Structure formats: structure tokens, C-alpha cells
Amino acid sequence: MCGIVGGVAERNVLPVLIAGLKKLEYRGYDSSGAVVRSLQQPTLQRVRTVGKVEALEQKIQHHAQTISGTVGIAHTRWATHGEPAECNAHPHICNQQVAVVHNGIIENYRQLKEKQLVAGYRFTSDTDTEVVAHEIHYQRQSAPSNYQAVKQAVTQFEGAYAIGVMMADGENELIAARNGSPLVIGIGIGEHFIASDVTALLPVTRRFIFLEDGDIAVITKAHITIYDDSGQIVTRPEKESTVTLDTIELGEHRHYMHKEIYEQPQAIYNTLQGRIRNQQIDLQSFGANAATLFEHIQAVQIIACGTSYHAGLVAKYWFEDIAALSCQVEVASEYHYRNPVIQDRTLFITLSQSGETADTLAALNKVIAKRELMRQTAPVCIPTVAICNVAESSITRACDMVCLTHAGPEIGVASTKAFSTQLAMLAILVTAIGQVQQTIDKPRIETIIKGLEKLPKLINKVLKHEDEIEKIAE
Questions:
Q1: pLDDT tens readout for residues 45-83
Q2: How far apart are CA 84 and CA 103, in angstroms?
Q3: How many Å apart are CA 126 and CA 299, to the nearest integer?
């Protein structure tokens, strides 16, 4: 997981890029870099360094008189291919013509690298990303435009990616493309930006466009043109973010994990709001057809990665012990690389904090594709549910039902409130299905609901013992 920021404006974008990288440092902090250009200095000016973004900022300050630009891209890295080293830090540049930042994994990079070596390209890093820069440069030699070069290049990539591209002959232009990794466009006044996460751009805008898989965007300070995977110009809806700067600032806390531990009571309270009415689960909160769908469910399949997978493991016990439903839990990366047999009357639950987890999204798309094939021969009931923290994410858009956890931004690497709110929502879902299928009697439903409603206060009581807990831990 890495962080991307880019911008095109009248002003020097470098301070915006650095500020954005600091907000994305939770996505990677072993190295960072930036590249800018301007109409006055059309050459690509790059700075990279090992370590946190602060080290990059200091290095840029030493060259403040020579490095500035009205268009630029920047990156903070979590090493996957290649060790943490300056040569492996992004942006990667090909022949001083094409600069690229990338989040994701190019799975066929070895095959592309072999082809590019034969074509005479020289590699200066151990990353999979460098093949992206070379491929775009190669395609640009025959493509009629920079957009066409990127469009032709991405057809060669296998895997997940979000990329930001600058070209030496691109004047004030950025190109962004995504497939399986998150990328948003920030809309300004006479300036536009790209980022992996809206939090990186909140200081400069609250208006965003969320790119969909297969989209390529050509971005100037005045215009945004988005092409879908068929090459057609499309309009993606503009959204105004409700995230506030104070939710992503440390405040009085020592670090983000500490802050987010203390945010759990409010996050769980927010997650429960609107789900409970008269000591019963409000089925309408899952959607108009939820009761009918839940009535026909005979099994549950949970697909997730990382911490979300562990939340699913807890829910497996609940589904089987409380709701009397068979439940399987599988790591999404395993699920989507095999050919699973999908049974009718199975509820598929995808768990993802961001809603952009590439393997979970790929597994979900496999389920949806298989369901459509099954429907060609007979009606089936295979609903999908997203339990997610981000309303406008790829997974929430793809699922039939959405259960938002309302945890707010989680910046700490170790999950806290995202995990606890997922468990709260899973408990609500288990109880809702048991309520519909009458496998949970009314007294037990009331006991579960009362327990959930007590959780915020109980967690607050525990947090008041922090000093005692810290002494025990020492």
C-alpha cells in the first residue's frame, strides 16, 4: 500500500504535494519522492529520499530556489518489490520524458521487463513500477496523444494499479488511471488534484470525483476529461466530502492508534444509529427488499482480507451459534484465484474498511459474474452485502446492500475502530437474519440489542483505566 498525490495549477504545487504526502504517510513511509515541471522549466525535476516525508521536505528545502512547478506528482512508499532505497523510490522516470507514481502490483512485470530490456530500455530500480514508465514511453512513440499512450500501455498490465503520469511534452497536464486501487480527483478553482485518499486533499478542496476501474482521466487546471475502459468519454458524479480536518489531526494524542482507540465508543454509537427500533433490528435500514432476501438465506460466505478477515472469523461463530446458519470465511486473495462453486441461497458478505481492497473487490466481482451466469438458466437468490467504512467506494457500489460502519478515517496501521465497528455491524446483521428467520427468539434479540447499546459506555469505562493498563503492560 502506497500513497499518491498530484496536482496541476497556476501556483507552485510542491507544497500541496508534500502536505498531501504527510496525510498519506500511514500508507507507506520507507521512502518518498516528487517530480514537478513548469512552463518556464519544462524538464522533469525530481527529488527522492529514503525515510519519512519529513526527510523529503528537508531535501526539497535545500533546493527551494531551483525546484518548483505548476504540475507535479508525488508518492510515499511501502516497499513490495525492491528494498527501501532511493533508487526504488517513486516517481520513476523514463528517458526524462515520462514520470510515473504507482500504487498496486503489476503482476506480469517480469515478462514486461524482459520485453523492454530487449527493446533497449535501461532499468535503474528493482520495482515493478518502472515497467509502467517504460511501457508508456514505448507506446508514446506511436500513439497520437499522451492519453492514447497511457490507454495502450494499461492494456499490457496485469494486476491492480492506480497511476499518476506526467510527460515532459504534456505542458500543464496530468493523466491518472485506476484498476483495483483507489484514486480520486480533487476539484479546485482553476486547479485540480489526484490522490489515493480524500484526506490528502482536504486542505485544498472538499469536492471529489471517484474514478472507477478502467477509467483514465486527462486533467488540466481548467478541465477534467474521463474515459472509461472502452475509450468513451464519461461523466462520474461529483461528491462533497463530509470528512473534516479535525478527524485526521492528532490533537492531544501521542499517535493515531491512540487517538483511534479513544474514538471507538463514538464510532460504535454512530454505527448502531438507525439500525434499532423498539428493541428490534430495523430491517428497512438494510434496504427495501432485505426482509425477503434474508428469509431465503440458507448459508453465509464471508470474504475479506487482513483485520477484516479476523472480524469475519468471529462472525462465523455468531452466525452458526446464534442464527443457526452455516457460515464460511475465506481470505479474498485465495477466493478469487480459484474457481469456487457458488450455491443458491447464499449470502455473500464482503468486509473492507476502505471498500477498495483489491483482492476483496476481485472476489466480489467473481461472485457477481458467476451469479449472472447462473441466472441465465434459473432464478437464484445470492445477495451481496458490503460492510464498509467508505460510502463511495468500489465495493459499496457493487453490492446489493450496504452496511456503513461510520468509523471515520482510520490512519493507524493497526486497526482499532474499524475492527470494532465491523464486529458491531456483523452482530446487527446476524441478529437481523435470525429475527427474520425466527431462529432467535424475542428475549434473546432484546438481550443482544441491549448489550450492543451498552458497548460505547462500557468501552469508555475501560479507557479510563489507561494508566493502570499501561503499568501492567510495562
A1: 999 999 888 889 888 888 766 788 999 999 998 767 678
A2: 15
A3: 45
Higher pLDDT, 155 or 255: 155
Q: pLDDT tens, 291-313?
A: 999 999 999 999 999 999 999 99
Whole-number Å distance between alpha carbons of 256 and 25: 11
Q: Which three cell numbers stand for residue 13?
A: 504545487
Buried b (16+ CB within 10 A) or exposed e, 415-449: bbbbbbbbbbbbbbbbbbbbbbbeebeeeebeebb
Superfamily of domain 3-247, CATH level 4: Aminohydrolase, N-terminal nucleophile (Ntn) domain (3.60.20.10)
Question: Angle at Cα 310 formed by Cα 315 and Cα 180, nearest 5°?
Answer: 110
Question: Which residue in 283, 301, 300 sits closest to 292, CA to CA?
Answer: 283
**Is the backbone of residue 274 left (phi > 0), alpha (psi -120 to 50) or beta?**
left
CB 163 within 8 A of CB 101: yes
pLDDT grade, residue 152 (50/70/90)?
Answer: very high
Cell numbers 511501502 correspond to 78
Note the pTM of the prediction, 2 decimals: 0.79
Q: Which three cell numbers stand for residue 419?
A: 475492527
Identical fold for domains 3-247 and 252-473, yes or no, is no
Domain boundaries, the chain: 3-247, 252-473
Q: Quickly tell me which residue has 518556464 as its cell.
A: 40
| Cα 458 from Cα 314, distance rounded (Å) | 20
Distance CA 208, CA 194 (A): 9
Superfamily covering domain 252-473? Glucose-6-phosphate isomerase like protein; domain 1 (3.40.50.10490)
